[in-house]
Amino acid sequence: MSNVHRKRSLPPLAALPAFEAAARHQSFSRAADELNLTHGAISRAVAQIEERLGVKLFVRRNRRVWLTAAGERLLKATTGALDGLDQAIEDIHRHDKSSPILTVSCEPSLAMRWLMPRLGDFREANPDLNIDLRLAGGPVDLLADGCDVAIRRADYGISEHYITTRLWPEYAGPVCDPECWETILSSDLSNARWLHTRTRPDAWDDWKRRSGSTATPASEQYFDHFFFALQAAVNRLGTAIGPLPLVADDLVSGRLIAPHGMAPTGFDYVLITLDPPKRDPRVALFFDWLMAKATDMEHAISPA
């Protein structure tokens, strides 16, 4: 007899991830920590499933829990179902190569000072592919964040589950307004107000270590983000450590100068993807464009 119209007797589906985490850890507290829920929320979710099934899934004793035979059976089925859903979502995400949108996660300062001013050129050259730009920094979860690729400064541990493709090395050095350097600083960084950013607080110390400089600041000012510190340098409020490519356009236009030149920081900017860039024609197109723009930048500015 056909069971096409059979009513499914499933437990509350929203409660299954809580059960799976509790069963895997054999701890409601650890499950709560993993899922950012309360202990009570995990307990209620498990109770909902037990009430629906009419059986106990856990033996509770002295604040510890053990799976019953029914719990073991449900854990096996739930794990397989959740893994299958994860794989299906990942496969859909990986193989949506015909989408007219490429979602790109990029560090905010890099996006505002380098990428966004160039995206108009990409749009003109590739009118059938739109870039959906998301501003974010640090570790990225491409699938959870709904992103195809991410551009990051590789100064943290990137998951081995991702493909990281080198874009360009980072160079950095003190940058300031050219008139400020001539009339106020008198070619001496010790006369300068040093501009710092809380997102990269060791930038000046790192540069001094690499360059051998013994200069000390006349005064200091702190900003929350690199973007603000660099804009303050443009506005003659002091001298900042300017990394390429964040100051590339300012150096080319003459808004800023790098009187001590630029030196490698030891970090690279990378493209983070689920698969090698060439596997998805949209990602390949964007990657090739990024590399071309990086070459243009290198030709315009030759770091010392």
Automatic annotation (TrEMBL):
Pfam families: HTH_1, LysR_substrate. InterPro entries: LysR-type_TF_proteobact-type (IPR058163), LysR_HTH_N (IPR000847), LysR_subst-bd (IPR005119), WH-like_DNA-bd_sf (IPR036388), WH_DNA-bd_sf (IPR036390). GO terms for biological process: DNA-templated transcription. One of its GO terms (molecular function) is DNA-binding transcription factor activity. Residues 11-68 form the HTH lysR-type domain. The keyword Transcription applies. Keywords: DNA-binding, Transcription, Transcription regulation. The keyword Ion transport does not apply. Belongs to the LysR transcriptional regulatory family. PANTHER family: HTH-TYPE TRANSCRIPTIONAL REGULATOR (PTHR30537), HTH-TYPE TRANSCRIPTIONAL REGULATOR TRPI (PTHR30537:SF74). This is LysR family transcriptional regulator. It comes from Thalassospira tepidiphila MCCC 1A03514.
